[in-house]
Design a protein that fits this description.
Keywords: Membrane, Signal, Transmembrane, Transmembrane helix. It contains 33 helices and ten strands. The protein is mainly alpha-helical. The strands form five sheets. It has a two-stranded antiparallel sheet. A two-stranded antiparallel ribbon has the order 3-7. The chain has a two-stranded parallel sheet with strand order 4-10. The radius of gyration is 50 Å and the shape is elongated.
Length: about 725
């Protein structure tokens, strides 16, 4: 189904282009179905007898159209020139002057020496053959066969000494034919009426300028215009002849130039590829023929040894095919070049279509050169054909894929997405069809769905990059301003930018800026708790363990400064005093950043609610929690011993009830004045103390000389107090 749709789409697109080109070529007078008036255009005049006579005029491009066509032709001409230059050099070195190349490169000596060695080996084989035949004659066994074999050996022994020369004769014949074919492909100088062919020399090599031949011949302005009329302003009769005054040549418009230019560029590019492949074929032919020359004695070995008859036959076959590859390849190029000469003969009403079709024919003949070489067994021809076929397939797939996903695919994708928004089920037949069409590649490399998804991802990355740029700009501008208000505004903008960044953006920013830089310090100081957690959980390829440890230490320093409320405090005693006084205001996130060591150091200064949250948190191990409990109790006891009242300062009833039992049951009764009735009720409700300890606490409160808190006495005198502490 999809293949049929792709074929239909490709055919339709091509037909539309050709139809559009045909419409553009139809003159307005013809479209109206009327003959041109005398004041309109006509490409004919009347002779003395009143008969109309054609005035052949050639097409011309307008100014802008000419620029467009020349630009496109230049692109294709560049490929043709590059490929043609390689072919020119290859022909000059490996075909036209093959003996000179072999001699200048020192290959001729190698050929002669290897050939002599192979010849001597075979001559030695012939000697043993003659000895064997002699024994048969002496013994009188199969004298007839022995005499026939002896004659064959003698003839083969004679011929084998001329095998190299025979091979060279065949190769030279093929090179001469190829040279003549290359001569036919030379550029004919337009300035030389004698038709003398141009020929250049590069480094002593005669270059045939094959690419110039094709580039020069492919020229739409050689087309004779019979499909457009020439404008005439008046008809005057002079000496029995009607003359045409002020005739104007018809100009090809921009659309004509675009279509012809693309066609020309494609043709020259393909021809350039064929040229480059041909250059490689001529080189492989050269090397193949050298090996055939070296082992040319094989050509006569089959005469003596029947088992080698197939080898000798294969050798002869390879010699002739490799020799004729050059002429056959160049002959097909000559046919392609001769086809281009027919451009000047195009006179149909469908000029544009005729030009396109002629270029297609030229491409076919040029491509046939590689096919002929491949059919003759040229080394590398099969690879070149596969490469070119893949290239053509890619172009076809690109055209059909682009057209399909931007027409049928786009409509189907939009319909499918709108149906999804309306809540239509994916099992709906129309949604399934539209989804399949949107996901079809139409012979290309990507479907409409894939292109849209890729574009959305690209847009997201672009927006993300813009956001990162804005955040970096805000960070760089922090603290900048001439007035206090401007400085404050820049700092606020920086803080909002950092806190407003996503977790992924924070990780990317941390990886972008070097540790210790202003930007890095600003990000670490102002990031939120969730952003910090995300950075600590980032993948190793985003932030490694070393970077995370460094960030955690720097973050802890900033949190400590915030708790102390004095960024300039460096004295250890001042920092400790600030931490002790303000840590009770720290958030859970700040405490987590401080780490185990700092929490244990100031555990006694924590509020009971903070301490309870730590005990319930999963961020700390049981060993850490045990350490916190021990440190908190030690620090509270130390503070209580120094100043009992400071331990109870600003504590609520539940906080008092949670104090260590050692403090609540102080034998000296120093805690009694601070224990409230609410604390006693909380102790009883939560079983902070057992019955024995509660009786002991009651004894301390009611002991003579101890000052009891008023609410404690009221609670103990209440029925509930008497029940729980009585």
């Amino acid at each position: 189904m999809m293949k049929l749709l792709q074929t239909f789409l490709f055919t339709t697109t091509f037909a539309v282009l050709l139809a559009g080109a045909l419409v553009l070529e139809v003159p307005s007078a013809q479209a109206q179905g009327t003959d041109p008036a005398p004041t309109q255009q006509s490409n004919q005049q009347l002779d003395e007898s009143g008969q109309r006579v054609n005035i052949p005029e050639k097409l011309q491009f307008g100014t802008i159209a000419g620029w467009v066509y020349d630009a496109l032709k230049t692109i294709g001409g560049l490929f043709a020139y590059l490929g043609g230059s390689l072919l020119d050099i290859s022909l000059s070195l490996f075909v036209m002057d093959m003996p000179g190349t072999a001699e200048s490169w020192g290959i001729k000596t190698v050929i002669d020496e290897i050939w002599k060695m192979v010849r001597d080996m075979f001559n030695l084989l012939f000697i043993f053959g003659i000895i064997f035949v002699g024994f048969k004659l002496i013994l009188g066994t199969d004298e007839t066969g022995a005499k026939r074999t002896l004659g064959t050996i003698i003839i083969a022994a004679l011929l084998i000494n001329f095998s190299l020369y025979a091979t060279k004769v065949v190769v030279d014949f093929g090179n001469i034919v190829a040279t003549e074919m290359a001569t036919l492909l030379k550029t004919e100088s337009p300035e030389n009426s004698t038709g003398t062919n141009t020929e250049n020399e590069i480094g002593g090599l005669k270059i045939t300028n094959i690419s110039d031949s094709f580039v020069t011949k492919i020229n739409p302005e050689q087309i004779v215009n019979n499909s457009f009329a020439l404008e005439r302003s008046a008809i005057e009769k002079a000496e029995g002849t009607i003359a045409l005054q002020n005739a104007k040549k018809t100009e090809l418009d921009l659309m004509d130039a675009l279509i012809m230019g693309l066609t020309t560029a494609f043709t020259l590019t393909l021809v350039g590829f064929v040229f480059a492949a041909g250059a490689f074929l001529m080189f492989t032919r050269f090397m193949y023929l050298i090996f055939l020359m070296m082992f040319s004695p094989i050509m006569f070995l089959g005469f003596v040894l029947p088992n080698f008859k197939k080898r000798s036959s294969d050798w002869w076959h390879k010699l002739f095919t490799q020799t004729l590859i050059g002429p056959a390849y160049l002959f097909m190029l000559y046919i392609a070049l001769k086809s281009l000469e027919n451009i000047g003969d195009i006179q149909s009403d469908s000029t544009l279509i005729s030009y396109v079709m002629l270029c297609i024919v030229v491409c076919g003949f040029a491509w046939a050169a590689l096919l002929v070489a491949n059919s003759m067994g040229a080394m590398g021809a099969d690879t070149a054909i596969k490469l070119g076929s893949g290239w053509g397939k890619s172009i076809r797939g690109g055209v059909t894929g682009f057209a399909g996903r931007n027409t049928i695919g786009r409509v189907a994708d939009n319909w499918n997405r709108n149906a999804e928004k309306r809540g239509i089920s994916e099992q709906n037949v129309f949604r399934r069809v539209s989804s399949n069409l949107a996901g079809s590649k139409f012979g290309g490399s990507a479907s409409r769905t894939q292109v849209r998804t890729a574009q959305e991802k690209a847009d997201q990355k672009g927006a993300r990059h813009t956001q990162l740029t804005n955040i970096n700009t805000a960070i760089a501008g922090a603290g900048v301003g001439t007035t206090e208000d401007q400085v404050r505004a820049s700092n606020v903008a920086m803080e909002r930018a950092v806190v407003g960044a996503s977790n992924d953006q924070i990780v990317e920013l941390l990886g972008e800026h070097k540790a210790g830089s202003k930007e890095y310090e600003t990000i670490v100081r102002n990031m939120s708790a969730s952003q910090f957690d995300a950075a600590m959980k980032a993948k190793p390829e985003e932030l490694d363990d070393s970077a995370k440890d460094q960030m955690a230490k720097r973050r802890a320093e900033f949190v400590k400064q915030a708790i102390v409320s004095d960024e300039n405090a460096t004295d250890a005693a001042a920092v400790s005093a600030g931490m002790t006084a303000n840590i009770k205001n720290a958030s859970d996130a700040q405490l987590k950043v401080l780490g185990t060591e700092e929490i244990a150091k100031y555990a006694g200064a924590l509020k009971q609610s903070q301490f309870d949250d730590i005990m319930k948190s999963k961020d700390y191990t049981e060993s850490e929690k045990k350490l916190f409990r021990e440190k908190r109790e030690d620090q509270l006891l130390t503070t209580f011993a120094r100043d009992p009242a400071s331990v109870f300062k600003n504590l609520q009833d539940k906080d008092i009830a949670s104090l260590p039992k050692t403090i609540l049951l102080d034998a000296e009764g120093r805690s009694v004045p601070h224990i409230t009735g609410g604390a006693l009720r909380k102790i009883a409700d939560d079983d902070k103390l057992n019955q024995e300890d509660r009786i002991r606490l009651l004894d301390l409160i009611t002991a003579p000389g101890n000052t009891t808190h008023p609410t404690a006495a009221m609670y103990l005198n209440s029925p509930a107090g008497q029940e729980r502490y009585g």
